[in-house]
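Supplementary material to the annual report.
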Amino acid sequence: MTLIRNAGLFAIGLTLSLSTGAVMADVVAVVSAKSPITTLSTSQVQDIFLGKTSRFPNGALALPIDQAEGSAVREEFYAKMAGRSAAQMKAYWSKIIFTGRGQPPQEAANSVEMKKRLIENPAAIGYIEKNLVDSSVRVVL
Amino acid sequence: MTRNVKPAHSAGALERRLHRLMAIILVAAMGNHSDALADDASSSADPHASMFLFSGFGTLGVVHSSEDRADFTANIFNPNGAGYTRSWSPSVDSLIGGQVIANFGPKLSAMVQAISEQNYDNTYTPHVEWANLKYQLTPEASIRIGRIVLASFLVSDTRNVGYANPWVRPPVEVYSLVPIDSSDGVDASYRLNWGQLVQTFAGTYGATSSKQPTGGNAEARRQWNISDTVEYGAATVRIAYQRADLTLDGLHTFFGAFRQFGLQGEALAARYDPYRKPLAFVGIGGMYNPGDWFLTGEWGTSQFHSVLGESTAWYLSTGYRWAQLTPYLTYGALKANSNTSDPGLTVSALPPYLAGPATGLNAGLNAILGSIAIQSTTSAGVRWDFKKNVDLKLQYDHSRLGAGSPGLLINLQPGFQPGGTLNLFSAAVDFVF
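Predicted assembly:
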């Protein structure tokens, strides 16, 4: 009986966890409003944030900035953009860090700091909740 | 490859030389600091980058083997493992490693990474796996001087970082093919971005010396490795070629005795003595990982013109991610392409007082040839990412040893039957910090 109830709860939990993606606030990739970059494809953003390229498609250097580890906006960004969980991203970067090939993006503490960092450096690219977009930044994806 | 090739890092002359070299480059790098800062201002590097970065990784694991007359080990450096030495062995997979990276500006950095794991002499004294100075010529090109871990296979250079990999350990059939894993020298990497396609060329040249659990040193000279990695979205394909002049001085002493037996002895020694003999390796690997499942496989062949001969191995592994759980299945196989026995010296043609020693040498030669590993393994396991930066893995392996072969087992005890089967059960907790 207990087993059946647990199985039922588990099924509900699974349904909830599968549906959370739909109820989360939208995340958008942004650059400074002063950046010449206007739009990027998912794979271009992915390559920049996974360290597979150091440049924007126009050849200018790109400086990716992450949100704080464990934040909902970061988890959603990587889930949407690369189909990867936080643990998978950590495993991915562990491969690069412990072979000395590179370092993960720097971190901004929250979306307010993220916007500050983007304004500071037109080469920077980050991501924030869609409803926090203002005239200081431009949505590129 | 046989388990006779078991190099392990030593605190030998080469290591001391490397430490001196590292000290010199670090001092030189400090002197260069002002130049590096000047570069800072003109590039996109920003003031938020840190000067020093500290990271670490580790695994706590236990392995149980159903074969209690021999030891299972996960890599060619361990002197003992699960089975005969310990029914439940913590030494096979457990280790801890730490890394310091010093950034002297946007282009110049130094990296030192040390690890404590079971060494060739059964101690856990930490040794330096990586120690190099890196100069980033452009965002796409870099050169390194110092010690690196060779990337013979897809995950060779992160095989100790359990958290980075889906299994408890990389499939042993393929990952035991090359008896050298380190290089003291130079290393260069160049990346090309062709739209969505990313191509990375890497090359390494150097030498290495390491102690073997069975005695003596493994010395690789004029060692080079080139690789080409192509990434396209979730797909990665990599091809690598490696070459070295390898000496296993423990076996060299043994084959010296053959040289006392005239032309036939000389010929046998010339063929089998692992003294400055070319070792060549080619490996092809692929990985497809769109996020919620993966398929990966590798094939490799190593040819060592000596008693260790030629071996070929491959594996295929697949897994599916279901929230925090990633169950996986792997099949791996290793076979010997060269002879596993030799008639040796013609004892009947020798004077009676030499017949005994010659018979002994023949037996020794055939023991080495016969211990060449032939085996296949089917594995099933699961990775559970139960906590931030920590995973738990459980893995079951069923291995079938080739006829007359001990497979990759070592420390064979009286009563051990080659050519059998064995089961392994492993549990491991991996972490990064």
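The CA atoms of residues 340 and 369 of chain B lie 5 Å apart.
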